Amino acid sequence: MLHVLLLVAVLLGGYVFLMRTLFRGSKCKGNAAMSGKTVIITGGNTGIGKATARHLVRKGARVILACRNRVKAEVAIADIKQETGSTDVLFMQLDLASLKSVRCFTERFLKTESRLDLLINNAGLVADGRTEDGFGIEFGVNHLGHFLLTYLLLDLLTEAGGGRVVTVSSMAYRWGHIDLEALAVNRHLGTGRYSWQFFQAYCNSKLCNMLFTHELAKRLKGSPVSCYSVHPGVVRTELSRNVSLWQKVFIEPVARLLFLSPEAGAQTTLHCSLQEGIEPLSGRYFSCCAVEEVNPRGRDDAVARRLWDVSERLCGLS
């Protein structure tokens, strides 16, 4: 009986520890006015993106869900309209796995919309394969598509006089590594048939998000635009939809017990979108609605600059 009690105590203690550390949530207290402002959210039809969109629509923002799947986006829009009573949420086609699609999206947006106040680079995936342009899918979607999207919209963000770019990264950046020489040749951050191999590529792509934000802040210095990278927490989303069946069998029960809800996972993104006075922290990394120090790998000036140059070249910008 004593052994059973000890086991229960250890399990309960472990659960409490995890809930206060790895699976700790937070609450956005930012309350910037959003009425009359325009927001783009990539992957806004599900998970963290949808929760973020719902909150911003409630605050009066005009929100564009930039998504690949029209059907899923229209379902999400119907839900948001019903929940908020607002009709100021709409769909625009964007496939981050296609640089052509990114360019078409930005061309259409610039023709039809007069302003952009907030760009939320939210979409991401864990998968193997190649994009339309031959890049590794995680590099192409998680980093390169967002890089080009941001690059092409910077002028409009600047015109807003206080625009923000929020990029959803992950604590997984800590396990990332970028071999720029191999990237230039192979056009991917890692590949392989096993899930652990493309999870490593995912970590690498999240490091790209960190370095992109770090370098972007340097290039925006003196500009009214600020940028932030965020760790949303460990969240129940569709991010792992491409992992193997046996891994899903393991992940699902753990996710239901421990992982944050999409609403909880959206809080740090919302903090960086709505909190007033954080402009001096442009380029920094946020977790649990607070700025957090990053390891040297995530703020390496030389690698960040070289990644930017490589990304420009791969996007045909230089």
| Overall pLDDT level | 88
Question: Beta-strand percentage?
Answer: 5-15%
Could you tell me the number of beta strands? 8
Question: In whole angstroms, how far apart are the ends?
Answer: 70 Å
Biggest sheet strand line-up: 3-2-1-4-5-6-7-8
Please give the count of helices: 11
Q: Stretches where pLDDT falls below 50 for ≥5 residues?
A: 7-22, 245-258
Helical/strand content category: alpha/beta
The outline comes out as globular
For the sheet with most strands, the description reads: 8 strands, mixed
Compute the gyration radius: what is it? 19 Å
Helix content: 40-55%
Give the ordered list of helices and strands: HEHEHEHEHEHHEHHHEEH
Which secondary structure elements does this structure contain, and how are they paired or packed?
Layout lengths: L1 H19 L17 E5 L4 H12 L3 E6 L2 H15 L4 E5 L5 H14 L5 E4 L15 H23 L4 E5 L11 H7 L8 H25 L6 E6 L13 H14 L3 H4 L1 H8 L10 E3 L2 E3 L8 H14 L4
Parallel strand pairs: 1-2, 1-4, 2-3, 4-5, 5-6, 6-7
Antiparallel strand pairs: 7-8
Helix pairs in contact: 2-3, 4-5, 5-7, 7-11
Describe the 3D structure.
- By secondary structure, the protein is α/β, with parallel strands linked by helices.
- Helix content is 49%, strand content 12%.
- The chain is built from 11 helices and 8 strands.
- An 8-stranded mixed β-sheet has the order 3-2-1-4-5-6-7-8, with helices on both faces.
- Helix 4 runs parallel beside helix 5, helix 5 packs parallel to helix 7 and helix 7 packs across helix 11.
- 46% of the residues are buried.
